[in-house]
């Protein structure tokens, strides 16, 4: 069997980028025969960016409900909260001890923070916590603990998965005695949506405040958000360049080949941006509308979600506990008393 694993940080409400970059491909992968899947809510990662407990709680519920509304089958998928698996922080420590500081210096999230400080003339590490600095090691533990082969993610996570490979490889080399203790994971990227643009054309991201929420705000909210997607100033009747429009990229993330071709042809023939946006809304709504109803039902019953996650934690730990015991032994620690 092949293992597929992915997680989402619980710091905000899910947006279209999370859905097309990670949730949709992960659920599709989980349906293939011979695949064992592990999807989780990265609430330890959330603590790095957020010190508001109520927000983390709310986001965890919303993201859990989103996975279930999007069709995650709890019979086939092990679905859990990262913070219910104490083996993850324990493995993080074992990995921390074999990870070079230089490698962490090169991690994108850390570099972005220090570059911003440099540009602002601040002390380089101002505002950088050890959580942010070691973020990729925690993520490596998430992946390596379950020996995931494939990790469906958006492009912004590729470097983290390469780091997980490196760390896993170093650990295998030091402690495997010729055996592969860890499977080395591969990022799985869906090229066409690897970086879904947001309203302003930059990567759709909570930190840029340019997201289109998947469910929040309802059908009306979706329509209003799409209306705010930035386009050029060409008028109806004037030919548009589909390759220069991120509205087209967002449209295409929900369209089949025929709809994509028709949209392009119509834009070139002068379709107005207003009409183009209406078509985009209709397309997304056809996809998201039925899920939104399931989502509303689920968020109204947090106790059902809680039961699902507790069962998921039990299944995940049935894998994690014996494997961590093996890893403790490999590095020379005693079995847990
Ligand atoms: P996070 O929570 O920022 O994003 C969750 C997933 O959504 C993808 N994504 C996008 N894909 C395409 N276009 C976009 N605009 C876009 N925005 C977000 C992300 O690439 C990601 O796949 N560190 C991770 C969470 C994590 C994880 C893991 C992932 C923790 N442990 C282990 C995989 C395996 C993160 O913060 O993702």
Automatic annotation (TrEMBL):
Reactions catalysed, as given in the entry: tRNA(Trp) + L-tryptophan + ATP = L-tryptophyl-tRNA(Trp) + AMP + diphosphate + H(+)
Protein name: Tryptophan--tRNA ligase
Enzyme class, spelled out: ligase
Family: Belongs to the class-I aminoacyl-tRNA synthetase family.
Assembly description: Homodimer.
GO BP of this protein: tryptophanyl-tRNA aminoacylation
Protein's UniProt keywords contain ATP-binding: yes
Native source organism of the sequence: Caldimonas brevitalea
Subcellular location: Cytoplasm
Lineage: Bacteria, Pseudomonadati, Pseudomonadota, Betaproteobacteria, Burkholderiales
Binding positions for L-tryptophan per the UniProt entry: 142
């Amino acid at each position: 069997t092949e293992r597929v694993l992915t997680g989402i940080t619980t710091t905000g409400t899910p947006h279209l980028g999370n859905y097309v970059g990670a949730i949709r491909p992960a659920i599709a992968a989980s349906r293939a025969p011979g695949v064992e899947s592990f999807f989780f809510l990265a609430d330890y990662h959330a603590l790095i960016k957020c010190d508001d407990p109520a927000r983390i709680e709310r986001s965890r519920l919303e993201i859990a409900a989103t996975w279930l509304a999007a069709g995650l089958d709890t019979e086939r998928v092990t679905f859990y909260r990262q913070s219910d698996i104490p083996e993850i922080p324990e493995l993080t420590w074992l990995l921390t001890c074999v990870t070079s500081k230089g490698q962490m210096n090169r991690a994108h999230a850390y570099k972005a923070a220090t570059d911003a400080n440099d540009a602002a003339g601040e002390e380089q590490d101002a505002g950088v916590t050890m959580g942010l600095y070691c973020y990729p090691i925690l993520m490596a533990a998430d992946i390596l603990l379950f020996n995931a082969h494939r990790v469906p993610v958006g492009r912004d996570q590729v470097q983290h998965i390469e780091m997980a490979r490196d760390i896993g490889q170093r650990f295998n080399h030091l402690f495997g005695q010729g055996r592969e203790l860890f499977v080395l994971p591969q990022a799985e990227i869906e090229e066409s949506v690897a970086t879904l643009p947001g309203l302003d054309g930059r990567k759709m991201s909570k930190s840029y405040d340019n997201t289109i929420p998947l469910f929040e705000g309802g059908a009306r909210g979706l329509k209003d958000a799409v209306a705010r997607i930035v386009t050029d100033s060409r008028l109806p009747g004037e030919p548009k360049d589909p390759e220069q429009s991120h509205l087209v990229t967002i449209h295409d993330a929900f369209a089949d080949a025929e709809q994509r071709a028709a949209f392009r042809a119509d834009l070139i023939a002068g379709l107005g941006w207003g009409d183009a946006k209406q078509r985009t809304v209709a397309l997304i709504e056809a996809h998201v509308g039925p899920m939104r109803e399931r989502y509303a039902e689920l968020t109204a019953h947090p106790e059902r979600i809680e039961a699902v996650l507790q069962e998921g934690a039990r299944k995940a730990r049935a894998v994690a506990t014996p494997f961590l015991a093996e890893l403790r032994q490999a590095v020379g620690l005693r079995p847990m008393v």
